[in-house]
């Protein structure tokens, strides 16, 4: 069973429905024990990083999430679920992240003519090809909605880049941990293929 973490911030139902379209059941829960027992774990999210991390901690979900990642359970972060994994976010001040990956979350500083948030379709360029992107062509378009992006401290974490006034990190990969800045659940067939590949991981 795919378990989607509910911390009252995010488009949980759309992620669940996208998995169901691929033929895989997904369960939404805020129960720490159910999260601790998950065989695959998804952390979606829309909103501010600091508020989201505070809510995860208030609900006692940080420990089970950390333990699952450390235990090798396949983990997928989506959008805010990517940003929260890092040490610090500068969205609306300076806020502590979960610190699972080294790095920071910063706002786009863009040339004239570019709007923030970055919203719409953009091409993915592979630095590494994570297993969940099996069968996805170089330059495939995915759907983005964000004003901030992650800057990993270690370059080898970056799996995919996109370009918006310059290159930025669009996805990371480390062992069993995968996380995307774009929304697979809003990215039509390409996004469904990513979710299907994740659901089939051993």
Describe the structure.
There is one protein chain. This protein has 202 residues and is an alpha/beta fold. The protein has one domain: Class I glutamine amidotransferase (GATase) domain (Rossmann fold, 3-Layer(aba) Sandwich). It is built from six helices and 14 strands. The strands form three sheets. It has an eight-stranded mixed sheet, with helices on both faces. It has a four-stranded mixed sheet with strand order 6-5-7-11, with helices on one face. It has a two-stranded antiparallel ribbon with strand order 8-10. Strand 12 and strand 13 form a beta hairpin. It is globular and about 50 Å long. The mean pLDDT is 96.
CATH fold group: Rossmann fold
Compressed to H and E, one letter per element, the order equals EHEHEHHEHEEEEEEEEEEH
Kindly report the spatial arrangement of strands forming the biggest sheet: 2-1-3-4-14-13-12-9
- Would you report the number of β strands? 14
> In percent, how much strand structure appears in the residues?
25-35%
Shape: globular
According to CATH, the homologous superfamily is Class I glutamine amidotransferase (GATase) domain
Task: Summarize the main sheet.
Answer: 8 strands, mixed
SSE-based structural type: alpha/beta
- Radius of gyration equals 15 Å
CATH architecture term: 3-Layer(aba) Sandwich
Under CATH at level 1, the class stands as Alpha Beta
Average pLDDT over all residues: 96
Number of domains: 1
* Helical fraction: 10-25%
Are there runs of 5+ residues with pLDDT below 50, and where?
none
Count of alpha and pi helical runs: 6
